[in-house]
Each structure stands twice: as structure tokens, then as C-alpha cells.
Specification:
binds alpha-D-glucopyranuronic acid, alpha/beta, D-Maltodextrin-Binding Protein, domain 2, 48% helix, six-stranded mixed β-sheet, 2 domains
């Protein structure tokens, strides 16, 4: 055998051994199942930090069975696409805004209702109540995904190329919103136009002047660099939408009750870590946006903004009566947080 042939024969043999090993490992239950988690944020984002704790908690107890891999920055695709993979079971978890899943299940529309919560304290206590999560996820089997825990994403506010100091400043302008008809109704009620698009498209849309502004929390300015192209951020606080860690039903339904418990506990650990990181990171983002990006933060008269969209509450509840029990619980959370 010449040298070249000898080498390729060796390679074939090595491949065969490796194949046999993998197959054996599979047969005797030694191979690990890959658990893929997708999200849209960068690696210093509180959600990523929470998901690292999720991974650690699972691998600490079930490391012999599962290899948990986190894919940040939408590397597996935009949320809309990954949701399909979640339903098929080829991606097991996704951290996703409720706005992205309200088209699958109307209950998630709850969080698009502008000014649903009167304080972040009320919002945080509401989304960390396991009973609320259960209620939201009651149709998980048909949805194809189940909410495991909720992450805070703070308050959503307008940011724009020009200063928005009052509702009148929104007039005739075009703002990117998250998907969903409620967001379109909300922008119309404010006298502006809505341009729904995915998160990853916002920077270039702002840069190219396709939109005048967008709406989000402070981290969008720094993490997504939107503060480079929109210099005015106004605290009107029109929405508080959580990101939910949703699990694929195909995957979750295969877990033994003992393993499922580990995943549930890991999700609760992830939430604690995310909440703890959130407020710290928001303060840091504000400072970076102000000092390094030249963004101006504006305090507006929130009541003026609120008055414009409060009539939407009744309209939404009449159109989607399934929201009523959850809406009442949100009102109770507002009262309790006072
Ligand atoms: C926030 C939220 C994301 C969401 C994004 C958006 O960053 O955490 O889940 O995708 O807003 O506006 O699309």
C-alpha cells in the first residue's frame, strides 16, 4: 500500500471505530441528548446570564443525559422561525417575547395591552407567580410549546431620531413595533404609524430612515446599538412585556417526572438570576448610552400618553374575552404592589 492509501484506510478504520463507539454509547444510554436553547440577545444580556444558570442547574443533576447548548444572537434564526423548530422539537427551548407568540395563543396578548401594569414591582410579582404561568400555558399541548419561566424585559418606551416630549410629537411618525395587531392599534391611538418587523432588522431600518423610531427598553440602545442611530429616549413606559422561556412540547412530553422536576427547578433558578442582573444592567446601559453614545433620556408626562390608549383596554377585552381572568389578576397585582 502506498502511503496515501494507507492513510485513508486508517481514516476509514478510525471512522468505523468512532461510529461503533457512538452507536454503542447510544445503545447503552451513555450518549447525551443535545438540548438547544435559542435567544436573540448578546452574551452579557441578563437573559443570557439567566440561561447560563439554567444550563448549569440541569447539567449539575442530569449532566450524564443532557448536553445543554445556548445559542445567543439569533444564531439559530429569528424567533418566528425558531418557533417552528420548537414545535417540531428540533430546538428544545426559546426565550421569546410574548408579542411573538400571541398569534399562536391569544392569552399571550395580555402583555401587549398598553399600561396593563402600574409599576414594575406589580409586573415582576405577576410574572413570577407560577399560577399565572400555568394559566398562560393551559393550551400548551395544542400550542406546541409551554412557558417554563418568565424574564423581565423592563418597560418599553419610545426612542426616536427627534425628541418625543409629548404625544403630539409622535404624530405622523413611523415606529417599529413587535408583531401583533394590538401594537398596530396602540400606535394608531397615539397618532403614529406602526411598522412591525423582527428585532434584528431594526438597526438598519433606523439607519436607512425606513422608520423614525422604535420602542423598547434601554438595553436595545446599547446591546443592539440602536443608540447610534436614535438619540432620544422618552420614558412613556407604554408596555411591560416579559420574555418567556418556552419549552418544546415534543421534548418536554418525553421527560420523566423526575427529570421534568429538574428542568422546572432550573427554570426558577434562571429567573432569579435574570431578575438580579436586570436592574443593574439597565443602569449601566443608561450610563453608556448617555456618556458614550450621546443619547438624551426624556421624562414625559406619562398620564398624557396613558389617556390616549386606555380606551383600548375595553376594546381588547371585548375582542378577546379569554383575557379577562388574567386581566383581573394583573389589576390585583397592581393593587397589591401599591
Ligand atoms: C426586547 C425583548 C426581546 C424582543 C425585543 C423586540 O429586547 O427582550 O425578546 O424580541 O425586545 O423588541 O423584538
Amino acid at each position: 500500500m502506498n502511503k496515501k492509501l494507507k492513510l485513508s484506510a486508517l481514516a476509514v478504520a478510525a471512522a468505523a471505530v468512532s461510529f461503533a463507539f457512538t452507536a454503542n454509547a447510544g445503545l447503552f444510554g451513555g450518549s447525551k441528548e443535545t438540548v438547544r436553547i435559542s435567544h436573540t440577545q448578546i452574551e452579557s444580556h441578563p437573559q443570557h446570564l439567566g440561561l447560563v444558570e439554567f444550563k448549569k442547574a440541569i447539567e449539575a443533576k442530569l449532566g450524564d443525559k443532557f448536553d445543554v447548548q445556548i445559542f445567543p444572537n439569533s444564531t439559530l434564526g429569528a424567533n418566528e422561525k425558531v418557533l417552528e423548530l420548537i414545535k417540531q422539537g428540533s430546538v428544545q427551548f426559546l426565550s421569546v417575547s410574548t408579542a411573538n407568540i400571541e398569534s399562536f395563543d391569544k392569552r399571550y396578548k395580555l402583555f401587549s395591552i398598553p399600561y396593563l401594569f402600574t409599576s414594575e414591582k406589580a409586573f415582576e410579582s405577576f410574572i413570577s407567580d407560577p399560577a399565572i404561568l400555568k394559566e398562560l400555558g393551559q393550551d400548551a399541548k395544542t400550542d406546541g410549546f409551554e412557558p417554563m419561566t418568565a424574564f423581565t424585559a423592563g418597560t418599553r418606551n419610545f426612542y426616536c431620531k427627534t425628541a418625543i416630549k409629548s404625544v403630539a410629537d409622535l404624530n405622523g411618525k413611523k415606529f417599529r413595533v413587535q408583531a401583533g395587531p394590538t401594537n398596530v392599534d396602540m400606535m394608531n391611538a397615539f397618532g403614529a404609524a406602526a411598522a412591525p418587523m423582527s428585532f434584528g432588522e431594526v438597526y438598519s431600518a433606523l439607519q436607512q430612515g425606513v422608520i423614525d423610531g422604535a420602542e423598547n427598553n434601554e438595553l436595545a440602545l446599547t446591546d443592539q446599538k440602536h443608540g447610534e442611530v436614535a438619540k432620544f429616549f422618552s420614558y412613556d413606559m407604554h408596555q411591560m412585556c416579559p420574555d418567556l422561556l418556552v419549552g418544546s412540547e415534543v421534548f418536554l412530553s418525553k421527560l420523566s417526572p423526575e427529570d421534568r422536576k429538574v428542568f422546572d427547578e432550573a427554570a426558577a433558578t434562571a429567573q432569579k438570576a435574570e431578575f438580579a442582573a436586570w436592574h443593574k444592567r439597565v443602569e449601566e446601559a443608561k450610563k453608556t448610552a448617555t456618556d458614550k453614545m450621546g443619547v438624551t433620556f426624556i421624562d414625559v408626562n406619562v398620564q398624557e400618553f396613558q389617556d390616549k390608549v386606555l380606551p383600548l383596554h375595553e376594546k381588547i377585552l371585548n375582542e378577546t374575552p379569554v383575557l379577562k381572568p388574567l386581566y383581573e389578576k394583573a389589576a390585583a397585582a397592581n393593587k397589591a404592589a401599591k
